Amino acid sequence: MVDSISQDVLIIGSGLAGLRAAISSAATNEKLEIAVVSKVQVMRSHSVSAEGGTAAVLFEEEGDNQESHIYDTIKGSDFLADQDVAERLVHDTPYEIYQLDHWGMPWSRRNDGRIDQRNFGGYSFPRATYAQDKVGFYEMQTLYDTSLRFDNIRFYNEWFCTSILSDENSFQGVTAIEMKTGNFFKLLAPAGIICTGGAGRIYSFSTYAYSSTPDGLDMAYRAGIGLKDMEFVQFHPTGILPSGILITEGARGEGGYLVNSEGERFMKKYAPEKLELASRDIVSRAMIREIQQGRGFKHESGADCLKLDLTHLGADRIKERLAGIRDIGIKFSGVDVIDDPIEITPVCHYMMGGIHTNIEGASEMRGLWAAGEAACNSVHGANRLGANSTSECLVWGRITGENAARYASSSKAASVAVSPQQVLEEEKRIYDGIFRGSGEVNPYQLRRDLTDIMDAKAHVFRDEEGLQEGLRKVMALKSSSWKHVDDKAKEYNTNFINVMEIDSMLRIADIVLMGALSRQESRGAHARTDYPRRDDVNFLKHTLAYYGMQPKLAWHPVTITRYAPTERKY
Ligand SMILES: Cc1cc2nc3c(=O)[nH]c(=O)nc-3n(C[C@H](O)[C@H](O)[C@H](O)COP(=O)(O)OP(=O)(O)OC[C@H]3O[C@@H](n4cnc5c(N)ncnc54)[C@H](O)[C@@H]3O)c2cc1C
Predict the structure, then answer these.
(1) 160 to each of 33, 71, 432, 465, how far by Cα in Å?
(2) Ligand 1 mutation pick, 42, 158, 215, 390, max ligand atoms within 8 A of CB
(3) How far is CA 226 from CA 21, 321, 544, in A?
(4) DSSP secondary structure code for residue 246 in this structure
(5) If you take atom 53 of ligand 1, which residue's CA is the nearest one?
(6) Burial code of 167-183, b = ≥16 C-beta within 10 A, e = fewer?
(7) Pocket of ligand 1 contains residue 134 by CB under 6 Å
(8) DSSP 3-state assignment of 160?
């Protein structure tokens, strides 16, 4: 008999999206019991490492306007964003900035006391609202503190969710393992919100926390919900070597620039107006081209790279506004950016794709929403602008939190009913199929092989041959005998958790590769050398992937409101 715990709203994930959703659910109806489940401690969610800023229009009196933020977002998306969703983001973000301010967020300020904003890539106006270069940490701390004011929010830290429970396509809850005891539970609720973040650890060279694996996406996928636009993976221009840790775009926003081995500020050839502050896909492609044409540097690890020069900014400005990345440079690259340029190269940083939702954050399953990086409401289309993701987490955290709470309070939310068969099948899948599995291949080696394949075959540039080879190699990994857990302990069995994560990584990597193969065009972050042009006639549409032995692909229309697609120039 599996123990069960019942709540009204179940939020999976305690990053920015999950915490914002919890506060908004709890405030919508204080009588509801809200549960926030996270496989890590709250403040270890990847959101704490957001560095550069949160985009919003705050200074209309100084010339900024919402129309411009909307258009920058849509242009940045290479016209794959759903335009009504981009409008919603831009309209709702200023409210979130001031709401955080009222909750105690220590925004960096101008001398006159007003909130400050800095430049970021792809924007026509400085819009990245920042807190030094640790915006995610301060936002998380502010939200966590605020959530503690609500007696109706309960945290389940270090609980690992494994599957969605449903009844006739209505959400009923999830199955989860309490890591401390190793006990298996049903967490039941009529309403759920998936906020499990991005899955950038399917690449080896990545800015993400090690916990950023696709188990949340995979749960939805296995439950029959579509994953959307998964081929669009963002590579950030400035990851340091050898670790891949991020140097925020704020460093270029503050005036830093990129140089090649000839000492040339090469971005002038690729984006004469915006230079280093063109959108990320364009800067990353320019960097790879420079390297391919022999104008890169060699890092001591053997990796190709370019350099980011901040030395002209001066020690005072760097210490005041970029203290975090200075620390990172010293500790992880042995370079003090006050004195020397730092070696950097494009690095996996964000997934535009995720759980298919509509503008309200509703998924295809009744009673289930998704928000934050795990969701794909199509606000970022084929390429996200920096600083728009934390905005998205806040805006759709609030929206989905309200929607889920209203649903849970209404008569539409039928009493929860889970068939014992469903729970039994999940126990079989994870305990018989994974925990008691056997095999010679070391799962950690398989994980490394998988992420190396993604680095090699689904990187900044892709082509048919490479993607096919990637798919063949992933298939070979899948069919090797790897699925087993050596550690048989019950409590805190991280080996078991890791192997479940790897299982999800294989399925989701497959979807990224298949989506990339079927999208025979170049758009935003998806650059096919064999189809170098954007093809609006055949591919101005979203990709959907549904569960099957092989992912089943389908298409979904893009919502165009007022902005006709044009060629992107920066
Ligand atoms: C280094 C870095 C810097 C960034 N800087 C910026 C920036 O300056 N501005 C900006 O706008 N964006 C930035 N981004 C992007 C942005 O930070 C993220 O997209 C965003 O914070 C994601 O938040 P989230 O709430 O969706 O998920 P996350 O913060 O990733 O949290 C995911 C949560 O899901 C939980 N979870 C996952 N799987 C399970 C499971 N199976 N069971 C239980 N719990 C689970 C985790 O425990 C965690 O709590 C940055 C990203 C990185 C990696």
Answers:
(1) 20, 39, 18, 37
(2) 390
(3) 22, 41, 6
(4) B
(5) 208
(6) beebbbbbbbbbbeeee
(7) no
(8) strand
- Phi and psi for 518 in degrees, rounded to 5? -80, -20
CA 242 from centroid of its chain's CA atoms = 22
pLDDT tens-digit series, residues 490-547: 999 999 999 999 999 999 999 999 999 999 999 999 999 999 999 999 999 999 999 9
pLDDT of residue 2: 87
What are 336-354's pLDDT values in tens digits? 999 999 999 999 999 999 9
Answer whether 14 contacts ligand 1 (Cβ < 6 A): yes
Q: pLDDT (tens digit, 9 = 90+) per residue, 384-407?
A: 999 999 999 999 999 999 999 999
Which numbered atom of ligand 1 lies nearest the CA of 40? Answer: 47
Tell me which residue has its CA closest to atom 37 in ligand 1. 196
Please identify which of the residues 20, 252, 366, 519 carries the catalytic annotation.
252
Ligand 1 centre from 94 Cα, in Å?
21
Question: What's the per-residue H, E or C state across 329-350?
Answer: HHHHHCCCCCCCCEEEEEEEEE
Q: Which long-range contacts (CB under 8 A, 24 or more apart) does 462-470 make?
A: 462/516, 462/526, 462/527, 462/528, 462/529, 463/528, 463/529, 463/530, 464/517, 464/528, 464/530, 467/513, 467/516, 467/517, 468/517, 470/513
The answer to whether the CB of 223 falls within 8 A of the CB of 94 is: no
Q: What is the pLDDT of residue 413?
A: 64
Cα(428)–Cα(220) distance, rounded to whole angstroms?
19
The alpha carbon of residue 130 and the mean position of all alpha carbons in its chain are separated, in whole angstroms, by 19
Helical axes 464-479 vs 494-518, angle rounded to 10°? 150
Q: How far apart are CA 351 and CA 363, in angstroms?
A: 18
C-alpha 186/C-alpha 434 separation (Å) is 19
CA 46 to ligand 1 centroid distance, Å: 4
197 alpha carbon to ligand 1 midpoint, in Å? 4
Does the annotation mark 556 as catalytic?
Answer: no
Q: Collapsing DSSP states into helix, strand and coil, what is residue 162?
A: strand
State which ligand 1 atom lies nearest to the alpha carbon of 16. Answer: 25
Of ligand 1's listed atoms, the one at least distance from the Cα of 14 is 49
| Amino acid at site 72 | D
Establish whether the linkage from the previous residue to 214 is cis, with ω within 30° of 0: no
pLDDT tens-digit map of 253-280: 999 999 999 999 999 999 999 999 999 9
Domains located in the chain, CATH noted = 236-346 (3.90.700.10), 420-557 (1.20.58.100)
- Report CA(350)–ligand 1 centroid distance (Å): 9
Alpha carbons 31 and 14: distance in angstroms, whole number: 21
The one-letter amino acid at 54? T
Given a contact cutoff of 8 angstroms between Cβ atoms, the answer to whether 346 and 317 are in contact is: no
Q: Say if residues 85 and 360 touch (Cβ distance below 8 Å).
A: no
Is the CB of 384 inside a 6 Å radius of any atom of ligand 1? no
**Does the C-beta of 15 come closer than 6 Å to ligand 1?**
yes
Residue with tokens 């964000």: 350
